[in-house]
Amino acid sequence: MPRDRRRQAGREASDGGLGENSAGMAPPDQLYRGVTRIFSVVILGFGVASLIVTLANGGGPISTGFLIGVLFTALGVARLYLTGRSGG
User: Fold this and answer.
1) Looking at the 3D structure of the chain, how many domains does it have?
2) pTM summary value
3) pLDDT tens for residues 17-41?
4) Residue 63 falls within a domain, yes or no?
5) Residue 60: phi, psi to the nearest 5?
């Protein structure tokens, strides 16, 4: 049994530190950051779309659609900022 452990440890050290597992996938933390960025852009898009639709239909800066659009836009921008700031 101890012999198996040494072989396994040797394989982990010999992967070259590329950050990929044996299946060629990115590590989970990189995958999480990427998905977070994608969802942040989608949320930002919803916010901008809500602003455009509200203003195109005659809504003002106090209307519900405008306020929701501003909140979604701010949320998307904040998530992108925090994701980029966390070192990814």
Assistant:
1) 1
2) 0.67
3) 555 556 778 788 888 889 999 999 9
4) yes
5) -100, -175
Please check whether residue 73 lies inside any domain of the structure.
yes
The 3 state secondary structure assigned to 37-69 is: HHHHHHHHHHHHHHHHHHHHCCCCCCCHHHHHH
Residue 16, domain member (yes or no)? no
Distance, in Å, from the CA atom of 40 to the CA atom of 18, rounded to the nearest integer, reads: 27
Instruction: Identify the domain containing residue 31 by its residue range.
Output: 26-88
The pLDDT tens digits of the residues spanning 45-81 come to 999 999 999 999 999 989 999 999 999 999 999 999 9
The DSSP symbol for 18 reads: -
Say how far apart CA 22 and CA 1 lie, in whole Å: 23
